[in-house]
TrEMBL record:
Residues spanning the membrane: none
Molecular function (Gene Ontology), one example: ATP hydrolysis activity
Coiled-coil residue windows: none
Pfam families: ABC_tran
Keywords from the UniProt entry: Amino-acid transport, ATP-binding, Cell membrane, Membrane, Nucleotide-binding, Transport
Domain ABC transporter: 2-236
Protein name, UniProt field: Polar amino acid ABC transporter ATP-binding protein
Topological category with respect to the lipid bilayer: Peripheral membrane protein
Compartments reported by the entry: Cell membrane
Amino acid sequence: MIQFKGVNKWFGKLHVLKDIDLNVAAGEVVVICGPSGSGKSTLIRCINRLEKFQKGELFVDGTPLHDHSTNLTKLRAEIGFVFQQFHLYPHMTALQNVVLAPINVRKLKRAAAEELGREKLARVGLADKADSYPSQLSGGQQQRVAIARGLAMAPKIMLFDEPTSALDPEMIGEVLDVMVKLTSEGMTMCVVTHEMGFARQVAHRVIFMDDGSLVETGNPHDFFDSPQTDRAAQFISKIL
Ligand code: ADP
Ligand code: MG
């Protein structure tokens, strides 16, 4: 579903992605972790071309992203992205946020989009919050609306960039629960997170990044219990 081949990216002189080779299969759940500034966000933002890269190849469901003629609207319609800071429109209700892209991009009629939107809100446990504005929702609820918004586009891939990092501790579980449910439905997911419990429960693979490189990859139990590199061991000891 996702294939990085020798991807390199620079911000000016700063080399932020170094020879990234990575394949993610359909239905696979990959957790990406590593120190701040190691390139995790940049890596997953390349997958829906929120970031360009200068060297290498990247295919998403067969579409070449290094080819600059790629239709980004179509690509992004197939990839849901959930950010640390929710990014909901504050002047729109939960339902309006969720139906915006289905109406504008998928060209659904409003009634059909709203039916779909209510179904997605129900799926994240927010059937009763359709008419609430973001300011009337907790952080955990806002993040679940953001997930419902991604799901409303029937994406092939869901990307999550530290989806629980901005949440109060008591709200982390409700967001992770929704994400766990998605993994059991066969969604292809790349999740930047330091939530070890989530990784151990559902990740097929953990990828450790440091200084722009993929340093280590393994199943979550091997990675957390017996990391192969000093850098990974040091990182794990800090998040424990
Ligand atoms: P992470 O998500 O692992 O914390 P990032 O992918 O955000 O790391 O950042 C990787 C490196 O790229 C960092 O050194 C960061 O400062 C730098 N960086 C990120 N975004 C930009 C940008 N828009 N312009 C310049 N440098 C950036
Ligand atoms: Mg980041």
